[in-house]
Design brief:
heterodimer; A: 220 residues; mainly alpha; 10 helices; B: 215 residues; 9 helices
């Protein structure tokens, strides 16, 4: 094993890690936002609109992320959508994650007791207020564990962005190993690194979860 | 703009390549079932060392992206003297990765069974082997069928990643097709359609099985 390679390539690996974190964080936030919008549309829009949204969900969930990225990055320019690798990757992550988040929010909303909403209507709250003050606070808390879980899954999906040349961690590692022929060490270290990252994030996530849902456990 | 001719023409080669996608997914889930059952048994065994090993196995394989696992496997095997075809390496990697998820599916299904079932079996004097093969496992298998179909759908999608190590499945074939026709949009959308078709069929199968086992 030749560890000096890692020192030599330190800066580019760090940059790659930075890009991985940026893609993951922004991708998760955008995908969550889009997912929330989709879940609200499904709840309130007229029937024919929800039908289109359902088709979108099925198509995105039924196709591999890699193929979606290819359509976006290589097919996009044919219809005038010309994006650099990083923005294309971000957009791809947003689109890929949104239906999963939408389903999580949807079941979160379903967990809100119907009596709460009826009570709000009975005292004359506007429908937008009901969403803002009843549906969202209660629904978001009950969908938190699933949200954390899927955000962790998205960290692992970021490595697929390397295939469309987004300069994230795996991309930098592959460049390094191609230049130094240290494929075995580089990939093993990367695997261990991801293991540590995912374990750490899930620990933090679980702590956050127990903290926010503490009041629910105490009551039951 | 959107050339329907290219779109329809790419279905031929892509459908032909789909057999590798199906082969990798089905062999992968088969291998995953075998290893996953062993890992689950280790996880539930009374020996702390085995339990610890199984826990690390599951945590590692669920923590590392499949693409990285593929690359590790693909580059490490020749170094330790195992010269296997790419196809074998791909199936083994996909199967090992699936084993972690499948062992958790088994564990969940077994945990979902009422403990009274096993207790009753022991009380009427069944041997431990019979308790497992006649009471616990048949029910656990039925309970976990929908989750297993779901895992198969995930594997069909995950198998697109083995294109990276050069196996001519749907994704790799569409890359080649896109390179020769210069119409990536149509070709990749055609590839997406095939994946969608496979997965919709599997999802329908899953719903059917779930419905049947509910009755």
């Amino acid at each position: 094993m030749e560890w000096s390679v890692f020192q030599q390539y330190g800066p580019s690996l760090l940059r790659g890690f930075g890009n991985t974190i940026i893609c993951w964080a922004l991708g998760t936030v955008f995908a969550m936002a889009l997912g929330l919008v989709i879940a609200l549309i499904q709840r309130y829009a007229p029937r024919w609109v929800t039908w289109f949204v359902q088709a979108y969900i099925e198509v995105i969930r039924g196709t591999p992320f890699l193929v979606q990225l290819f359509v976006l990055y290589y097919g996009g320019p044919l219809v005038g959508l010309r994006l650099d690798a990083l923005p294309a990757g971000l957009l791809g992550l947003t689109i890929y994650g949104s239906p999963y988040f939408a389903e999580i929010f949807r079941s979160g909303f379903r967990a809100v007791p119907h009596g709460q909403i009826e009570a709000a209507r009975a005292i004359g709250m506007a429908e937008t207020d009901i969403v803002r003050r009843i549906l969202l606070p209660l629904g978001l808390v009950s969908s938190l564990p699933a949200l954390v879980n899927f955000s962790i899954i998205l960290t692992k999906e970021t490595v697929i962005l390397s295939i469309i040349t987004v300069p994230e961690l795996l991309y930098q590692v592959q460049r390094m190993s191609a230049e130094t022929f240290r494929y075995v060490e580089a990939n093993l270290v990367l695997a261990l690194f991801f293991w540590g990252l995912v374990e750490t994030i899930s620990r933090v996530g679980r702590r956050l979860e127990t903290r926010i849902t503490k009041h629910l456990i105490e009551r039951t | 703009m959107f050339s329907l001719a290219v779109f329809f023409h790419s279905f031929g080669p892509l459908l032909w390549a789909a057999r590798y996608t199906l082969l990798i997914s089905v062999l992968g889930i088969g291998l995953g079932l075998v290893i996953g059952t062993v890992i689950c048994a280790a996880r539930l065994s009374p020996y702390p060392l085995l339990r610890r090993f199984a826990a690390i196995w599951v945590s590692f394989l669920r923590g590392v992206p499949l693409l990285v696992q593929l690359l590790v496997f693909y580059y490490t095997l020749p170094v330790i003297g195992l010269d296997v075809p790419a196809m074998v390496a791909a199936v083994v990697t996909v199967g090992i990765c699936a084993s972690a998820y499948i062992s958790e599916i088994w564990r969940g299904a077994i945990a979902a069974l009422p403990t009274g079932q096993a207790e009753a079996a022991v009380a009427i004097g069944m041997r431990p082997v019979d308790v497992w093969t006649r009471v616990i496992l048949p029910q656990a298998v039925t309970l976990s069928l929908p989750a297993l179909i779901n895992e198969l759908i995930l594997l069909v999608k995950a198998s697109s990643l083995v294109s990276v190590v050069g196996i001519l499945e749907i994704t790799r074939a569409s890359q080649a097709q896109a390179a020769t026709t210069f119409r990536p949009l149509e070709v990749y959308i055609a590839a997406a359609c095939i994946y969608l078709l496979i997965n919709l069929c599997l999802a329908a199968l899953g719903r059917y099985l779930e419905h049947r086992t509910n009755v």
